[in-house]
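User: Teach me something about this protein's shape.
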Amino acid sequence: MVKGTIRILNILTILLVLGTILVAAFNIYVFANPNTAINPYPPPAAPPPLALLTDNPATTTVASLEITQTPQPTRTFTNTSLPTVTPTSTATPTSVNTPFIIILPTHTPAPTMPGVVNTDSPYPFVVMPGSPASMSYGILQPDVGCKWLGVGGNVVDLQGAPILGLRIQLFGYLRGRLMEKMSISGTIKRYGEAGYEIMMDDHPMDSYHTVWIQLFNQAGGELSDKVYFNTSDVCEKNLIIINFKQVR
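Assistant: First, the predicted structure itself:
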């Protein structure tokens, strides 16, 4: 009887060793060939490149810009104050569906003032004069009002025509929370034909140079420098306007 028990244990030990070898071989094969049909968790397929079109090709540019610059600027902005756009009208909007286009001043401010176009930038896009600027989101969306915090704007080319399909990435930290969001130029028309918008939170809060946005092409190449901006905890400044313009 003891010999029979030992024989059974030997058989079970052999089966266990064989099973371990088979499992290890399976894992090695799947690791070396992740797209094999026997892999129960194959890697996701890469998304196709974005390509937004417009009905008026004569006046709208489809994004197909490439950037070859590799250096990453390390300078930081030390602005102590940002221009604000404070609404002076007390009229109540009659309809939330009325088109509303944000138009910032087109004059070039003095070199010591915030918002000056940085012509020394190695990138083909820079922030337009007057940006960043803050205003109340309730002017654009009265039904949302103060229950919002974010950034929006427009992207134009050398002639001032809209450029569709560029990626606007938001990075940084807001009150200790990681911020990593994206929008596409041309998806939010209330800022212009190539408008974009990124919601950061459902209520205003203040921050100082802890978040920034940056412009990218469809291939992921950088088209602008990092644009740091501040946020406020008051409703009249819960929307930050940042417009981009091509300079080369």
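Now, about its shape. The longest helix spans residues 2-32. The first strand starts at residue 61 and ends at 62. If you'd like, I can walk through any region in more detail.
User: That's plenty for now, thanks!
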